[in-house]
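Format notes (please read before filing issues)

Several people have asked whether sequences and structure tokens are stored in separate files. They are not. Every record keeps both together, in the order shown below: the sequence lines, then the token lines. Line labels are part of the format and must not be stripped during preprocessing.
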Amino acid sequence: QPDALVYWTEGGLYPKPNDNNHRDKLVRTGELMPVVSKYSRVSPSGIGRYRNTVLGDTFKDNLFSAQFNTHRIIRHKLIREGASFRTEDETFFSVDNVDFHPTDVMEDADGSLLVVETGGWFIKGCPLSQVSKPELKGGIYRVRREGAAKTADPYGNNIKWTSLSMQLAAKYVEDPRPFVRDRAVQWLVDHNAVAELTDLLHNSSSADTRTKVVFALYRIGTSDAMITMRNGLDDPDFQVRVAAARAAGLAKDGNAVNKLIELIRNDQPAVRRQAATALGQIGDKKAIAMLVAASESADDRFIQHAIINSLVMLNQPAPVLQAMENAAPGARQVALIALDQMPSSPLRASHLIPFLESENATLKRTALWVASHHPEWSADMLNFLRKRFQDVTPLTDEEKEMFGEILVAFCGDAAIQKFMADQMLGKSKEKTFLLKAMGECAQKEIPQVWITEVKRILVSENDPDIQTGALELIRLRGIKPLTDPLRQFANNKNNPVLLRMKALAALLDSLPQLTDLHFAWLIKQLNMRNEVSVRMEAASVLAHGHLTEEQLLQLATQYLPKADAFMLPRLVPVFKGEYSSKIGNALVTTLMNSSSLDSYTKENLLAVFQKYPADIKPVVDQLMTKLKNAHAERLEHIETLESGIGNGILENGRTLFFGKAACWTCHTIGPEGGSLGPDLTSIQKDRSTHDLLEAIVYPGLSLVREYETYRIKTIQADYSGIIQAQTSSHIVLGTAPQTSVRIPRNEIESMEILDVSLMPQGLDKLLTNQEMADLMAFIVGQDQNPKTDEEILR
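Then the structure lines:
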């Protein structure tokens, strides 16, 4: 087509021939308009059903979605599977230009697709490049199939709708043009054309047309319309029966109950699911027995959920209680969940005992889940827990997860608190799991029996995993009366270095002033000969403590000049405050000579120097000028690194990820890693290589939603970190890879999102260009790794 910028053929998508500037034009329904385009920052969107056949018969009823970070439009083929759907996904088209970020895709009336690119102005969304041309404004592109016939009057604007007869309007319901069909249906609804719609339902050979008719009759809603709509429940095509069941439920059509009961007993899964849903919406109690009977063979989870939901809506517990004694596990599970959710539920802890003692793992898991949100059953559940913990068989990971939820739910009960403390004296393999449950307890004050056990661990335990759990609990819950044990633990040279630093960080929560002895020890740990994880933790502790002017001057003059580009960004925030010109000048000198200056933002550095004496302003201005020049070279630096990725070695990158680069401390790939940052498993499917590389080299420019850095100011302290969990009473803030703090909401004075990232800057300076290529090869090529999980873990 003359106004198309791209053509789709069986071989793929191609730019318009002889038009090298096709990205610099905007197509909007046939018009050419000038645009400047390249970026967007929104979530994948534009998922809509394609109703035409212009792209090809196999495209009808497909879905399309825009994936801006991977520069492509995805085609999703919907395939019925049980009571719901699955999709087979393939790339409809992709663009090699890293600056093309589509954000929406929609079908136009003529069967072409409109692809929207919002450009760099939309910056609050999924992260992508800000270095390369962020000023670009976006565009809209039309995709047509090459050689496709032009659709005449696709919107039906030439039809004289105001004078149309009902018979002719009914014919347009079967028109090949989707938008015309829509207008025809609306016209018939507006004119209450029940007779014409009835004729279509009985005589049309198209299931799509009959489906439209069913919903049109529901919208009319008169008694004669409902009679005809109900006929759809007997339609030979299951798609129409699904539509009729949905319409009957929405209309609360009591006259449809008997037929719906018949459908739930014996029909295709999608029809059974919709019939079950409709019976709950209608609210006829005689449906309960059939819903319970249907649950006996409801292996499909969508059908099972529909039955549960309807039983809850019907709110008749007596017959559902009887179903808990049913021989079929499916019926028992459905009955238990439904009773738990019913407004007038008579469910008691005693009802759960047969489930907890069952050999059926699903029933046991369901009972534990139900128990976890009934803290009033703590006494009954305590007996079960005691029996299980006395068993010599170790708890499975699944049991630890489920029992943990129960212990957290019941932790306000004194007997449960003592039970947990008593277990700390027993099997060592369960102690880390118990410490985690203690940390998640919603009680404002930690019970003294727990504090006693935590103190004992610091003094007498030798297991690093258990010691780590105890130290994390102390920091997470802000346990104060352990100053002496923490000091002794931090000073004990026999303890692992990382744990000593964790103890020191916990000590600083109560006594924030860093002693000269501890300061000197931390500086020693910053030595380049130490592992990256040790140096990172030392810098984190230094940033957490209150340093004297003398300590800051020593740090600025003796360590910062030789600090590598990976550690320097972690230490610069320590200098934010009201300090002497001597300290300020030393810091400026270090930054002027830093190879990672381009990683900083002007706003962040000015904030560091804001309260320093006015006489350092000239050197700060010089620093800002150099920073501006460094920023201008960012794109060239990214492109240089990107050009070498093809030479990267995946296995070497794996070693770097879990070693020198220390990425694993915050990020997970597969079964390994931390949770402070986003999970990077298969990240290459959602982010382009360019954007990933930029996020690694300049983390402050690319902030991922739900991983923003928050600054929370309380009555006693300021915290910066990532929100890991929150309830109505508290927020759990991750302040470091292995450190979190639990902040009661009633102590929060202010919260703000910072335009900084907890991810460290300077990784590209710590690694050589080849090592960066290796690391990127692993991150973007991890799915091609032939090794098994067992081999990876080994």
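For reference, the curators noted about this record: The radius of gyration is 32 Å. The chain has 35 helices and 18 strands.
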